[in-house]
Amino acid sequence: MGRRISIALLLLALLWFAYSLRLRAVANRIRAQMNERRDERERITRELYDTLLQSVQGLIMRFSNIAQDITTIPSTHREMIDALDSADAIIIEGRDRVHALHQWSDTRSLSDLVRRTAERLLRPEKVETRVVIEGSQRDVYPAVTDELLRITDEALFNIAHHAQARNVTIAIIFGPKALTLRIIDDGIGIAPAIVAQDGVTGHFGLVGMRERAAKIGGQLAITPGLTRGTQVEVTVGAEIAYADRSRSIWLAWWRRFAMVRSDE
User: Fold this and answer.
1) Which of 1, 34, 7 is nearest to 240 (CA)?
2) Per its UniProt record, what Gene3D superfamilies does this chain match (predicted)?
């Protein structure tokens, strides 16, 4: 009887070991792809800052000089100043977005970066924001943090501009099998038809969120809140999400097998 149990435990240990190796290989492949995309994103970021934003800033300065020359036409001068103010706002938002692309490199703390993103996008006098941590915090793989921040950025941007929410709760759940990021607001909600077709035609926010989740092997769910508002939830497997990988469970099976053998 003991011999049969030993053989069964050995087979289970070997099967789990093979599964763990397969899972590790898939995780490494996904991480390699994420690193490639991260490098490409950094290159694009540098080009955006060095070319587009700098060029627009130069253009604004030229129009500012023109505006000073048309002060004799009050209505035209006022419209020019308003247009320049709008252009300045676009420049600031563009720089914020470019800066956000580099946020993940400052620290691995996902919770700190999520708080920074919320502070940047949600005005505290209009929206009360809570960031809740569940489970023991763990280091998150930088490229996973990067994609989760981009999803958070898009979700909070939508809340700030469309949801009319008064309260937002962001939960980061460090589970043993998965990392979950959940964003809940009490706004007017989003129509199920819009979620089903991945957003409004010509807008790519929801599509981008799903694509980012897929890039890190995660699952994105957008559902109505319990009473009102919207819930956005991203779940990423622990093998991919966590940088501090714990020892494989198959070792515990192997130790158990060895103990059974020693008792025979």
Assistant:
1) 34
2) 1.20.5.1930, Histidine kinase-like ATPase, C-terminal domain
Q: Are 81 and 63 in contact (CB under 8 A)?
A: no
pTM: 0.60
Cα angle 140-176-15, degrees, rounded to a multiple of 5: 110
The string of pLDDT tens digits covering residues 40-94 is 666 666 666 555 666 666 666 767 766 666 666 677 667 777 777 767 666 666 6
| Tokens 């977005």 found at | 97
Q: Residues 235, 240, 245, CA angle at the centre, nearest 5°?
A: 120
Residue 170 has pLDDT above 90, yes or no: yes
Domains identified in the chain and CATH numbers: 109-241 (3.30.565.10)
Which amino acid, one-letter code, is at 113? Answer: L
Helix (H) or strand (E) holding 235: strand 230-237
- Between the CA atoms of 23, 29, 34 and 37, what dihedral angle is there, to the nearest 10 degrees? -160
* SS3 (DSSP) at 144: helix
Buried b (16+ CB within 10 A) or exposed e, 2-17: eeeebeebeeebeebb
Contact 37, 215 (CB under 8 A): yes
